[in-house]
Amino acid sequence: MIGPIVARAGASTHTGLRRALNEDAHLAQAPLFLVADGMGGHQAGDVASGTVIEGFAALHGRPALTIDDVSFTLARVRAAVDAIAGASLANGGVAKAGTTLSGVAIAAVDGVGYWLAVNIGDSRTYRLSGGVLEQISVDHSVVQELIDSGELRAADAVKDRRRNIITRAIGAGSTGEADYWMIPARVGDRILVCSDGLSSEVEDDEIRTLLAVHEDPQTAADRLIDRALEHGGRDNVTAVVVDAIHVSTRPGSDGTTGIDDEDIDSDTRPRAEAMGGMR
User: Fold this and answer.
1) Would you state the pLDDT for residue 251?
2) Is 263 helix (H, G, I), strand (E, B) or coil?
3) Which of 107, 67, 72 is nearest to 191 (CA)?
4) pLDDT attached to residue 8
5) Which CATH superfamily is domain 5-133+166-260 in?
6) Is 150 exposed, middle or buried (0-12, 13-18, 19+ CB in 10 A)?
7) Residues 6+ apart with CB under 8 A from 29
């Protein structure tokens, strides 16, 4: 069965130049295109992100998903990550397993193709459409809160030492909910889902250029990873690039609707751990 969006995708991941372990995990098979960035170190972060992606992989092969499908699966994988963290603590571990999650699912409204975007944490989902790059997701981070409140300029955020402290996660003691958006899809849409190892190294203008220049999604994903490494590769880095090559549409379907210094520490961390419970 042909789904409401026919997509082709490419994906690439790298441990980075300063890490011994890749705690990122990803899924790039219709109807789901996701990136999870784990925290907590070995037997914590990598297990948490892998558990989340494995849980969502069970939805592979469906032509489309609903918000209920995604939210139900998210509840199940959250419980699994919490169980991993509990077992680790019971065995004398100190790290709290946790992970971010960002990406899109193929969805439909009255037969029309939509991107169902989901985000929790500071991994990101972008859309390149009509030559314009838009960040769909909103970072759940201390730095984003400071920008929103006017206490920090967006231009200063990239070098702020708090930029990797997140306020919501799956696991890591967080109970924060995910954000969802339903976005009408168009033929030619290019979606980028990435861990903060990419967005913290490569500026949005360069991301847009690389996505626009490289037609093949796998080539685009590989080149994005290369640039993150060339810029320093201080963290694990993952990119999933998705192209809409066919979309079921109706006249008038358009717009977006929201539902709901040099050696900066580049580990993604839950806010409570990094700031001693600061609110």
Assistant:
1) 52
2) coil
3) 107
4) 98
5) PPM-type phosphatase domain (3.60.40.10)
6) exposed
7) 9, 57, 60
Q: Which own/partner pairs from 52-58 qualify as long-range (CB within 8 Å, at least 24 positions apart)?
A: 52/25, 52/77, 52/80, 52/81, 52/99, 52/101, 52/170, 53/25, 53/26, 53/27, 55/80, 56/27, 56/32, 57/27, 57/29, 57/32
Domain boundaries, the chain: 5-133+166-260
User: How far is residue 118's CA from residue 138's CA, in Å, rounded to a whole number?
Assistant: 10
pLDDT of residue 233: 97
Burial class (CB in 10 A: 0-12, 13-18, 19+), 198: buried
Instruction: Give, in degrees to the nearest 5, the angle at Cα 194 between 235 and 95.
Output: 50
Alpha helices in 58-113 (DSSP H): 67-90
Q: Judging by DSSP bridges, how do beta strands 269-270 and 170-171 pair with one another?
A: unpaired
- How many Å apart are CA 125 and CA 186, to the nearest integer? 16
Q: What is the mean pLDDT of each run of 10 residues along the chain (279 residues)?
A: 92 96 96 95 84 96 96 96 71 73 97 97 97 96 81 74 84 89 97 97 97 98 98 97 93 44 46 42
275 burial level (CB within 10 Å; 0-12, 13-18, 19+): middle
Distance linking the first and last C-alpha atoms of the chain? 48
The span from the CA of 100 to the CA of 199, in Å, is 14
pLDDT at 277: 37
Residue with tokens 């290019």: 190
Is there a contact between 49 and 78 (Cβ–Cβ < 8 Å)?
A: no
Q: What is the pLDDT of residue 18?
A: 94
- Sequence letter at residue 259: I
Nearest-10 crossing angle of helices 45-57, 67-90: 150
Is pTM beyond 0.85 here? yes
